[in-house]
Amino acid sequence: MKKILFPILILLTIARLQAQNDFKVVGYWPYYRFSWINDIEFQRLTHVNIAFANPDSLGNFSVGGVSVTNAVNKAHQNGCKVFISLAGGYLTPTQEATWDYLTLPANRAFFIQKIVSYVQAKGFDGVDIDLEWQYVKSWYSPFILELKAALAPLGLPLTAALPGNYKYPQISNAALAAFDWVNMMIYDLTGPFNPNNPGQHSPYSWAVDCVQYWIDKNVPAQKLTLGVPFYGYNFGVSPVEALTYRYIVGLSPSNADMDQVNDIYYNGIPTIKAKTKLALDKVGGVMIWEIGQDAFGANKSYSLLRAIDEQIGQVTAVSQSEVAGLLIYPNPVGEALHLVFPEETNGLLNVSDLQGRMLGQWILDAQSRLDISTSSWPAGMYQLSWSNLERVQSMRFIKL
What we know:
Layout: H1 2-21, E1 24-30, E2 47-55, E3 61-62, H2 69-77, E4 81-88, H3 93-102, H4 105-122, E5 126-131, H5 140-151, E6 158-163, H6 173-178, E7 181-185, H7 204-216, E8 224-229, E9 231-234, E10 241-244, H8 245-251, E11 260-261, E12 264-265, H9 269-282, E13 285-289, H10 304-312, E14 321-323, E15 326-329, E16 336-353, E17 358-373, E18 380-387, E19 392-399
Parallel strand pairs: 1-2, 1-13, 2-4, 4-5, 5-6, 6-7, 7-8, 8-13
Antiparallel strand pairs: 2-3, 9-10, 9-12, 11-12, 14-15, 15-16, 16-17, 16-18, 18-19
């Protein structure tokens, strides 16, 4: 009986580990935060969404009038996929009129080709659409379907930022299904737009409700990322002001463990970790608005991005790594990686890059150690996952 069950359990383990390896940590990075390029720990992200690009009347794109080259290169050097996020939550009247003009049926094919050319010229790995509320119009779904048709043959994913628990009526089921995943914006339940309703703008309970909302809309769970805020609101002033998490922790490091200080409401480390656990259990990833608001410098140990990474259970590189008896060495690795298991064990081991691309998979058969040649692997950070019938472990290591 055990011999029959073991291959089935191995298959189940493969599926479980693959889901874990596909878990996304998506960080939006607005151009006005590019100055923090050397402080952001990109190795803790899988995807970076540069925000926001908008076209002129000829379909030529600009990201706030600044170059994205250094930003794209920095994220790529740290193993991240880099998407360009188009539009944004606020458009000027001119930008809104330009979107309306370029998405007319007569102009749409030309406009989409402009998008594709821009993505290819700048080295982006995908496109994110962040059209919100009054900017989601009747042309939205036809535009999405045609854009998807242009991107898919090139292997370029298409994603969207959508509200936590609201589906715009202009988004057809076909357009919703065209997105490779949906970044759920589970924040701004209240804020400056509602100054007489002070309180938590991104409570954990609402995250639970939002996940269920989109699953009920027939969006597969693995095509959802759970949005978390790296900012808060101060309702003690008029008008209500937005504060970065970095500023809030700068007031006092003890604020990192809370969600409220006086009239300031935000998500501290415990809530961010709880939401990450919820995402690991229920959906396909975590999304952050936005990574430039994290704690850096003297307060970097209170980083919310670090808290997310720790909750996912991945371990940053040290000279030697040991998790519950599984030993890997050296780390960083050179030409070979050596693993020592706590006992002779059956199970499954795989190694992938941070985007989930598999480099190797080994079925263990009563082994106590394993030696893996890494000489052909490019330099970078990798994830190792090991599972037997009793436990699943995951850690990171660096190849020099």
